[in-house]
């Protein structure tokens, strides 16, 4: 409504989030999926040199848990070029392609995603102009929108700025589709003004991957909930919380939860008679969404509040299998790519 901003002054602003319904109908598909590989906090997934590999901290690991390559800082982004070169973005803001260092613009220090387009150009998402990738929660709590997307075309060209933590890239012939985490949406960047493709997501979108037969897979790394949305509106409380409370215990999204009695959201109907309710409020969740060619959600795979495969940051479809990096669950899952929500 056009008068809502004015009326909010008198009535208070309503805190609403999209429901998990329709294509987002909850299920236990992720918790039921077999484990493809066990490793600490798997993040990025790529098919490289004839096998699926995952980043885990500063290591690149194969499904057997062996270290394929070790880097000087945590790996924050991976992509494989059409010629088979591995592009690696690190938490220290550096980028290498095929083992050779690549010079970056001074503004790029927070590499959250890399992707090669059909024309062989390398796309890069810079999550924040002021914070490193590991401080993503602080970027949200500070309500920043300083992210940017770049493409390497001879030199580096800035395609868009002012983005609220761009976290996933899906290039095509017309440009690139970007997941903008803090605004809960997908954008198309290319010629002209950024075009929203999918808005009002029920979680914070992470990386995108191509799907067989067209469309895409989208990982959502944490859920939205009313308490977090309320805290984001309360400036004085939010700033005091950031100054006085350790980040692990902020009222903020998380990749995993339930590991400490100091965490928020322990009461309020989470447990009854010792049973953790699947529909209870939660800071972490597991969610993967299958999108059609027009980015319309078709179905989704879940690990609910009482599950353990939370914090999904990357998805990779290869040879009829869907590989899913549950960073909060310390495992990579494998599921048939045609599996639909139950």
From TrEMBL:
Recorded superkingdom: Bacteria
Name of the protein this chain belongs to: NHL repeat containing protein
Source species taxonomy: Bacteria, Pseudomonadati, Pseudomonadota, Alphaproteobacteria, Rhodobacterales
